[in-house]
Design brief:
Layout: H1 3-26, E1 31-35, E2 40-44, H2 46-58, H3 72-83
Antiparallel strand pairs: 1-2
Length: 87
């Protein structure tokens, strides 16, 4: 492999790595969550996280626990609470 080719390969690799790091650090991934109790979807974004943290704090739960890993009864409690708080 020639010197020019190695340099080009290194640039491509550096660009790819920089892009993936930027995506992981600077752009959170939002997703939609289905609420089976009310039959609607919620976009799990910064606004929903604020509500979730408030709910978890009020109930003395870990505010950083992933909602998707909560037991079904706690998820139901969250959706009931959420719909009574502007949801």
């Amino acid at each position: 492999m020639g010197m020019k080719s190695r340099f080009l390969s290194a640039c491509v690799l550096a660009t790819a790595l920089a892009g993936s790091v930027g995506a992981a650090c600077g752009h959170p991934h939002y997703y939609r969550v289905y609420d089976p109790y009310y039959g609607d979807y919620h976009v799990w974004n910064h606004n929903e996280v604020v509500f979730y943290h408030q709910w978890a704090h009020e109930r003395h739960y870990d505010e950083n626990r992933d909602f998707r890993k909560l037991p079904p009864d706690q998820q139901k409690d969250y959706w009931t609470w959420r719909h009574s708080h502007g949801g």
